[in-house]
Structures are given as C-alpha cells and as structure tokens.
Automatic annotation (TrEMBL):
GO biological process, one term: proteolysis
Organism, as annotated: Herbiconiux oxytropis
N-terminal signal peptide: 1-39
UniProt entry tagged with the keyword Ligase: no
Family that this chain belongs to: Belongs to the peptidase S8 family.
Protein name, as recorded: S8 family serine peptidase
Length: 585
C-alpha cells in the first residue's frame, strides 16, 4: 500500500511565487501593545527562543513563528518548547539527496550537534522510511523546530495501513513523547467505521499524549460561474439509502433486478449525481456504504455515464470485501468542461439493506471538479465533508490549513462534519477540524521531486500547531491533553483569516475554533496574577477618656463589646482575604 501524505506536492511547481526568495520574511500583522502589557511574566527558569539571526531569514516557519505569535510568546513567557518531546509520523526523514538532515542542522533549521542556535539535541529517528520516500517528515520537523526550537523531536515512519500506523504510534509512546503529530492518510480508512489507528490515538490520549493530525487535502470548491460556486463539493453522503428507478442503460448493464440511489432529497427523483470536470482531467472517487466491514450484506455497484458520448460504464463491488469501491470520471477533451453522471446501484435481493452511503472525490490537494449537482446539504444529505479516518476521531486534533502569504483558508483543506457509526459505542459526529495552522511555508529542500521550496497542505499546517502546543506544555508541564486542547481552542482566532466558503455555511466545518494563537494559548494555562490588596486606612486615635460622639467611659462595658466584635470581624476579614488569595493564586 502507498502512503497518502497530506501535502501539496503535486501542485507545488505550478504555484505562483512558490519558490522562496532569499531573505524572504512575511511580516506579522500589527499587534497592539495591550497584549504585551497584559501578558503574564516569563516562567521562572524558562529559556527564551533563540533569535532568528542565528539562521537564515527565510528559515522554515519564520513566517509561522510571527503570524502564530510564537515569537511574542517566547518574549513574554520565556517559552521555546524546552523539556517537551514531540513525535512526528510521516513517510521518511533522511533518505533523499542533498540537502541532507546534517546540512539542515548546520544551517540551523534542525536541532543537532553544531546547530548555530545552540539547539544540539538531534532528531531521534525511531523508524526510518524506505528508499524512494519524500522525507516529508523532515520538512515537518523543520517547521516544528522553527516555532518551538527547544522541543526535542522524534520521528517514526509509517506505511499506508491502519495496522502500520498503530505500530508507529506505539513506537513513539514507548519513546516517551508528550505530543504526536502526523500527516498520513491511510488506504484502508472507511467513511463510516472507526479504524484501529483511531483506537490507538484514543489510547495515546488516555495515556496523557496530545495527538494532532493533518486534516487532509481533499477539499473541492465550486468554481465561479457555476451553481455550486463557493460551496464545498468534495463529497456527497446521505444517512439512508433512498431507492428510485435506474436509468435504462444502467439497469441493462446490471443484468439483474436493481434500483438506484435517489440523489434528490426533495419530492423529485434523480438516479444520477452530475459532476462537471475541467478539460483534461481524471478524477478518482471512492464509494462507501455504512455496513460493518465484517458483516457486509448489501451488494452495490457503480455506473458512470457520459451523456455527450452516449456511453455508460458499470461494475459491481467485490463480494466479501470491505464496504467500499473505487471508480473515476474523466474528461479527455481539450477545450470545454464536461458533465458526467454517477449512479449508485443496489442489487435487489433478500439481503439488500438501506445503509448510509457516501461518495468522496479524491482531489488530493487541487481542484479537479468545477461543479456538483445537489451541492446544498439538507437534513438527511451532507455535501463537502472530507474528514475521514483517525483525523475524524474525537480524540484527534485535526488541523486545517491557512495560507501564510494570503492569510486565506485553503480550499483544499478537508472539512466536516464526519459521522462514525461502527467501531464506536454510539454514533459520533465531529463537526470539522479542531483548529487551523499555517501552510505555504519555506523549507530547505523540494518535496516529491519538484523544484519548489514551499511546503503546502495540511501536512505543513499540522506541525505549526503541534509546535504551539509544545510551548503551552512547557509553560504548564502538568497540563494533560484535555487542558492543552482547551488552551489551543479557547484562544484561537476565528477572524484572523479570510474564508473562501459561502457565508451561509458554518465556519466550524472548515476551520474549527480558528487560527491558533501562541500568546493566548500559553496565557490560558498560566495562573492569573495575584492582585495586590488595597491598603486599609487606619482611623485617627480618640481621647482615652470618652468614646467619640457618645461621651461614654472608654473603659466601660460597651467598649469591651465593641472590641470583641472588632476582633471577630477582623478575623473574618483575614480569613476571607486568605481564601481569595488561594482562589486566585
């Protein structure tokens, strides 16, 4: 099986301005002085992050350190990730040509002996990838080191299956990591069923490890000029199979009694989902249905119709296999967009059920659809959800991607909601990614055989958020996964970037709580400053012979009663004051 990494290797060379200009530095937005004034003092004994002057100005994650306010957090709180172990899971670390990992250390973009910034503990590789890998794990490490340079980094390679991912998580747990971040999409993930990798993630979190993952790059947006403009069109799903009559050509090819899914949630009937492709495009998609992988009873098939050519292709899913099958639609023309019809076909027999069904288009980091029929979600149908696998598990912090140059949410960043029906005690719904990080960041080597030195995709965004989490963990070493997650989410900025999506759609589907903020996240786990009590004025002494305004003898019974009451009241005030101090310490 292949490892599906969630970067944008396939389009890097075509991105305008993708090559890194020497000395490039993206300026951070202006920050009011109030944030610095209100920040808590640096933690005792904490080491501030090394200045960027010890490495190149276009070093990996320099823009992220500024835009995520990690540099400001380092100055305000003295945090750089020291004392925190972060594990990275990807394809490989140091298997490619120059520059090598040793070159990166010498340049100050990775930790290790000879690092010019003084971060000399090398990345510990507990499992390396094979020859021909892309070293995307090293690119992730560069970004993580740029935001949290004091963090100790570990790396474990993985394959493309859930079982291989479980092993990688185990290796990092045994190595004693505090945080794990991955950028891997698994070939055997199912749309409606929890896999063993998600179970391993939950177990890691229960053991005290914060787990983050790249959300995925399977988002697609309807193109301007088409009905679905501004809407997510990467998938279509419904909670229950709705039968209708198949087109004649489809029924003829099936050769047995069949019906087709009705894609129209309204009063009408539509046995085809029309997808429109640009010229010279081949789009793969996966069809899933909601039956347990070990108890599949319903037999489904897929048909694809090209109306212009008058052709229909059909095949059945493999019997006895998992509840999924793969197909594709193609536009071989050079000049114009082309519409293709997709039909989901069900064999009518005694075992036929009405399970949930889903179609997920595999855009893999770039828009390959321009329009999708039935693009609006309804009470029963969801369009545009592409968060799948362990990324869609409640235990995982799935990370969306915001372009560091434009501060715009990437259209390819996978969205929610995601519904899991099997392998869980009860059905679970994850609204979307938990938070967003930054991509379009400089790295020291090209990925995937290209020439660009810009790292795009949620693979790049995830390590920037993991780095911020390391800063928070250093500030409060006792903070567990729940506290760290709460700090990241409660301080995130939902208005720090622009969104390409239609305004009628909830932002939480695409970017969760918003772009992480290092200053706010660190402040969230630190104790509030103890207020200084205001001085209590002391009244002037009265003559000993009489009480003021009464003329009573100062040694009489009334004075004794007043003195006792004052003593009791004073004691009460002291107790309350002590309690207030305890609560705010």
């Amino acid at each position: 099986m292949s490892v599906r990494l969630l970067s944008m290797r396939r389009v890097m060379a075509g991105v305008a301005g993708g090559a890194v200009v020497a000395g490039l530095l993206i300026a951070a937005p202006a920050v009011s002085s109030a944030s610095a004034v209100n920040a808590a003092p640096a933690a005792p004994g904490a080491a501030a992050a090394a200045p960027t002057s010890c490495r190149a100005a276009d070093a990996p994650a320099t823009p992220a350190a500024e835009l995520l306010r990690a540099s400001e957090a380092a100055a305000a709180f003295g945090v750089d990730g020291s004392g925190v172990r972060v594990g990275i899971i990807s394809d490989s670390f140091d298997t490619g040509p120059v520059p090598t990992a040793a070159d990166d250390v010498a340049a100050g973009v990775l930790p290790g002996p000879g690092n010019p910034c003084g971060y000399e503990k090398p990345v510990r590789v507990v499992a390396e990838g094979g020859a021909g890998s892309t070293d995307e794990g090293r690119a992730m490490a560069q970004l993580l080191h740029g935001v949290a340079p004091g963090a100790e980094l570990l790396f474990a390679s993985t394959g493309g299956s859930n079982d291989q991912m479980v092993e990688s998580i185990r290796l990092l747990r045994e190595a004693g990591v505090d945080i794990i971040v991955d950028d891997v999409g698994l070939d055997d993930d199912l749309f409606f069923e929890r896999g063993s990798a998600a179970v391993a993630v939950e177990e890691a979190v229960e053991a005290g490890i914060l787990y983050l993952a790249a959300a995925g790059n399977y988002g697609e947006v309807g193109v301007a000029g088409y009905p679905s403009e501004g809407f997510p069109i990467s998938s279509w799903s419904t909670l229950e199979y709705r039968p209708t009559e198949c087109p004649a050509a489809v029924a003829e090819q099936a050769g047995v009694p069949v019906d087709c899914l009705d894609f129209d949630a309204g009063a009408g009937a539509d046995p085809e989902l029309t997808a429109t492709l640009p010229p010279n495009t081949d789009v793969g998609f996966e069809f899933f249905w909601g039956e347990p992988s070990d108890a599949v009873t319903t037999q489904f098939g897929l048909a694809v119709t090209d109306p212009a050519a008058g052709e229909t292709g059909f095949r059945w899913a493999e019997e006895g296999g998992a509840p999924r099958m793969r197909a594709g639609v193609t536009n071989l023309g050079d000049d114009a967009a082309d519409a293709q019809g997709i039909s989901i076909v069900r064999r009518l027999d005694e075992a036929a059920g009405v399970p949930p069904v889903a179609i997920l288009f595999d855009g893999d980091s770039h828009n390959e659809l321009v329009d999708l029929e039935h693009f609006r979600s309804t009470e029963t149908d969801t369009v545009g959800s592409s968060l799948v696998g362990h990324q869609a598990d409640p235990s995982t912090i799935a990370v969306a991607a915001v372009d560091a140059g434009t501060l715009g949410l990437e259209t390819y960043s996978s969205a929610g909601p995601s519904v899991t029906l099997f392998g869980v005690p009860s059905p679970t719904v994850v609204p979307g990614p938990a938070v967003a990080g930054l991509d379009a960041l400089p790295i020291s080597f090209p990925l995937g055989g290209g020439s660009s030195l810009t790292f795009r995709g949620t693979s790049a965004a995830a390590p920037t958020v993991a780095a911020v989490a390391a800063l928070v963990k250093q500030a409060d070493p006792a903070a567990g996964p729940a506290e760290l997650r709460a700090a990241l989410e409660s301080s995130a900025r939902p208005d720090a970037f622009s969104s390409p999506w239609d305004a009628s759609l909830p932002a939480t589907r695409f970017s969760g709580a918003g772009l992480v903020d290092a200053v706010g996240a660190v402040a969230a786990v630190l104790p509030a400053p103890t207020p200084t009590p205001a001085p209590v004025p002391v009244p002037a002494a009265q003559p000993a012979a009489t009480l003021a305004a009464t003329g009573a003898d100062a040694s009489g019974p009334a004075v004794g009663l007043l003195s006792g009451l004052l003593a009791v009241t004073t004691g009460l005030v002291l107790v309350i004051a002590r309690r207030v101090r305890i609560r705010t310490a």
